[in-house]
Specification:
mainly alpha, FAD assembly factor SdhE, 93 residues, DNA polymerase, domain 1, SDH
């Protein structure tokens, strides 16, 4: 199945799995939690942006999420949303 013919449900499942299997354990936890909280409610364009974010280097992602470096402009709102979910008082992880 190509991504062009991929069902929304399958795409969300694939992105959830990519979120859980990163190179840094901290990013596994942060992104898998974010995926569970947000992916099912995202539009196709938002999923495109999230998928592009997942293509970025894990070291860079960690620095953006931890505030060590600012996220590049196109990713800044998404990274902020990831931080908001990670810092939510209702987190279960």
């Amino acid at each position: 199945m190509t991504q062009a013919t991929e069902s929304p449900e399958h795409r969300i499942k694939r992105l959830s799995m990519r979120s859980m299997r990163r190179g840094i354990k901290e990013m596994d936890i942060i992104l898998s939690r974010y995926a569970g909280a947000r992916l099912s409610g995202m539009s196709a364009a938002e999923l495109d942006r999230y998928e592009a974010l997942l293509d970025e280097n894990d070291q860079d992602l960690y620095q953006w999420v931890s505030g060590q470096k600012p996220a590049p402009g196109p990713f800044a709102p998404l990274v902020q949303d990831i931080v908001d979910v990670a810092c939510s008082p209702n987190r279960t992880v």
